[in-house]
Amino acid sequence: MHRPSQTLGLGVAATLGLGAPFWLIAVAQQAMPTATMAAVRVTSAVAALGLASAVLSRRNRGGAAAEIAGLLRRHPLAVATVTLGAAVLPNLLIGAGERHVPTGTTAVILAMTPVWIALATSIRPAERLRAPQVVALPVALAGVALICATAVPASALHWSLLPLAASGCYAVAAIVVRAQLSGVSPLALSTAEMGLASLALLPLAALAGGDLHWKPAAWAAVAAVGVGCSGLGWLANTALIQQVGAARSSIVSYASVIVSVALGAAFLDEPITARVCVGILVIVTAVAVFLAPPGILTRTTNHPSRKERLVLELCILGFLAEEPLHAYELRRRITALTGHVRPVSDGALSPATKRLEARGLVTRTTAPGDGGPARVVLHLTDEGRSELLRRLVEADHVDVSDRNRWFAVLAFLHHVPEVGRQRAVLERRLAFLEDPARGFFIAGGDQDSLFREGMTTMAKATWQAEHAWLRRSLASLGA
To answer: Hey, what domains does the chain have and what are their CATH numbers?
Structure first.
């Protein structure tokens, strides 16, 4: 779906973009108030993203503007939330806090962002962290504390609440991007976000007033923060969130601290002590553990993969939403839906129903058998119906890009009562199909063959049929 090199490139760009502001903001604040700095920063970001739209987008400027307008029309609340959480509030909170709280301490506090995201997304099976990842987060946070090792004066302790609130804002923005805006263009989203932030912050800066000083280094610093960090850096971070999820993408918060150390040593003559080296080693180790694929750090087993468990659980909830079923009939229906991939056995179904039972999503009763022993009948609870609807309406990038998971979502989407939410799910699948970066197979040279031609032909026919059906269905739901 996404090339590892592309994801790595986004991660590096996001790390650089998030690591540079710590010392640049301190330089910029020597010449301007916090509100002015925030306004100039996001306005510079809008200019950079607008230029990127003109250079990188295949559409003309009118097309890009229409894309942004369509995004604001379809997702006004989500875009407004991301604007406040990622651009407006953090700029004001961090800028005001750094006037009283040391930069190093601010970096430690902002490194709480992945922790908030992990806590908030733990209720979503697709985003739930594995045990090694849960351990890696506080270890990485300890590494950040080792590097920074600064304290807040007792008289300014309450000011540390500002960067703490900013870390929460970043977490909310990342979660909203992943949950509701995964299928949109990251360039259009970032441009709309910074444009709205500019409209909000420029009047605020004018009302706040304050003394401005002409210090070329300070104004260059705030322009660099705007273009490189709030603009291109946040664009990379947005694309990374859409690709790998809010929790995994947030790990760049720790890696960016290492970038800050390197920049401080290069431009501010800050020493790199043994304690700083130990902190860097701790962060690198924790990040490596966090990003390690499943099975690398733990013994692999023959249990179904997480993807298979999620599909099976969704099928159980979906079929029980239609009527109570005994285990045999439930297994027969699931096999009819997904058996082309892997037949459903009692060894897989029984643990899945017990997991859902333990969470209060499914209950069981007994009913007389046909001349034999009593049969167990499974029922969906009100909590189970709510969970089913949540999984359907929140079907994210993986749910709409993986064919098996997409078929499971599509099989039960009729349970969602709101037509608008049904449309949103279909639109995410359509956006995936129309993604120009998604190529089924690239033919070339002497590698072409009759059989690869068959693969391409079948894939093209499938794409065309589904694309046409999605267009018809969206038109019908719109009417």
So the answer is: 4-291 (no CATH), 306-415 (1.10.10.10)
